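Retro notes - structure team

What went well: the batch runner handled both jobs without manual restarts.
What didn't: labels got mixed up in the shared folder, which is why I'm recording both outputs here explicitly, each with its sequence directly above its tokens.

Job 1
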Amino acid sequence: MILLRVSTLAVAGVCALVTLTFLWSLLLRRGWRSLVEWVGARIDCTAPIYLLADLLAACLAFSVVFFVEWSTGVIEVLSIQLHSHQLVALAAYILAVAAAEEIVFRMLVLNGLVLIFESRWQAILLGALLFGAVHASNPSASAISLLGNSLGGVLYGAAYLRHRSIWLPLGLHAGWNFFQGPVFGFLVSGLDLRSLIVHAPAAKSWFAGSAYGPEADPIGFLARSLLIVAVLYVPVHRAGALNPENRSHRSIAAAESSSQNERHVGSP
């Protein structure tokens, strides 16, 4: 598992270097505005809308997961403990971790893969595998949990490239982890966090109850798959890289071509 994680970080580092090299050249040619636009970090009216929609989607997904596991006797609720200061602290921690992972794996690694591969879906799938593999050293990690985390990478990668905004995958990622752990009391990628709802395993089931958390359970796979479908088919505010009619690299290329034409016109 350690060798897998080291290899994953090495490949991710190469992809990030490709992106950073491109961003540096883009900054020199087009300035900060084009760079911010290309990485999807623009702050506009869509940012809070994306974040709010993500929180609602994550809350709905884990409400269903919790209800199914509780109603089928897989878990037994022990208590409900409301400690607002702990929830706020955990929310800040989860947001910080999610932001760091989204910057690395979507802004840098995924964009590097997009620059290397012609197919956006090749980039998404390989980036998702790297995202899953980096969790290999988490407690109770297994081949199934790596697949589950990779499915999360598909969700966040598709959300990022389709909407060309970091706010959508960031909200989905942070919302998923927050409602999974601190609110509904499930393990978060094998990690046990303090939670509002405290429960314990009551029975074994084929669809839930793994030692890693819902991310390694069929019910968690289903929840993420439904979110992927929603991300792919909900109308977008602005066409992104998954739309073959309007890919960001084409707009950048067009801008570069225009810049070259301007230089030719102005040259003696």
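Job 2
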Amino acid sequence: MRVRTSTNRPIALLLMIALTALSAGDHAIAEAEAPTFDCNAADGTVEKLICVDTKLSALDRRLADVYAIALERWPDGEVATLRAGQRGWIKGRNDCWKSEDVEACVTFAYQSRIAELEIGSGQLEAATPTSYRCEGIEDTAVSVAYYAVTEPPAAVVTVGDDQAITFLARAASGARYTAPGVEAWEHQGELALEWFGSRYRCELIPATPVYEQKRPSRDGIGKVYMGREISQVMGHLGAAWLERPGREREERTDRLVRQLPLEPDDVVADIGAGTGYFSFPMAERVPAGRVLAVDIQQEMLDIIEARKADGAAANVETVLGTETDPRLPAGQVDLVLIVDAYHEFSYPREMGEGIARALRPGGRLVLIEYRAEDPRVQIKRLHKMSEAQAIAEMEAIGLEWERTGSFLPQQHFLVFRKPE
């Protein structure tokens, strides 16, 4: 592959430096800046180049960190494929000795692999896809999700159930993303798509607004999703209310935890974990698994870490999410629990899609919300949800309603399932 950048040092000179340093038995760069492999055993043009180039060494260390996280988040049944892919990538990187500009080729190899792993393992906040309608395959869903934060910029092209990660390439006009067998060239709202030998011309499908705005009601933020105004958020200063002495009696939280469909080795996510009120009891039910306590407020996560330091269950891991992304590993979570928090999500569609991605096929979401249908539940209107509303919103993100438990005094116990 021929790759050009503004850096164009003579390769012969770089290799002379590398060979001189290695033959002298000295480290070409400081140990802290060295790549992850042993430079004394460096084999071939590319590895020797990496050992004397601080930028390439830094990329090597960065890839090692990203790859380690990807291994943790990758679906268990596909880890062997990921490892094989990494070995294949190393071989491809080392083939850069054939390029006219070896340094540029190696740089691109690292950058594209890092972006590939970050996107594939959910290390980046998910991008909102742009939808297209393509001539000849009008009934097939086609979308492109653009990631401007990667280097080089990347785009995930989805055609039906298949996906490909592409990278920005040079173009006379518009944005052209390529990968072996795939080219997506966007220009002024139109997409020229090449998909493994077939070519399509596609037009942009105007996005339907997910949210509407209105004048905020007393306890709302004025943002409306599927006919429901989103409520205000309880901040970390309300942590004491979550731990109030009468909560177990009022809400029968003990019964709630017992009824969760958990196995001892499950991976569980507690979304809106707060102080860990449910995270730690769930951790006791999954002694061979782990609980991912997710919150968007670091102050709440600090409380959980303090409880762990005081001897609480060690298999609880804190995760700092965002308003649009729970930052959970894709396809690895067996059960997600959301207790009295979903109605506060500022971006329920984006959060819901992130949760759906995180669930393994057959995984479940348990949603606990105060019953809006019951006039006896003395909770502010926007802090309650009806069963019908909850089902509609979960169906919008691809989850199937399984059942609703009625054993809690004031709340729905709604169970949803991700299709196999």
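One thing worth noting from job 2: The mean pLDDT is 87.
We'll revisit the folder naming next retro.
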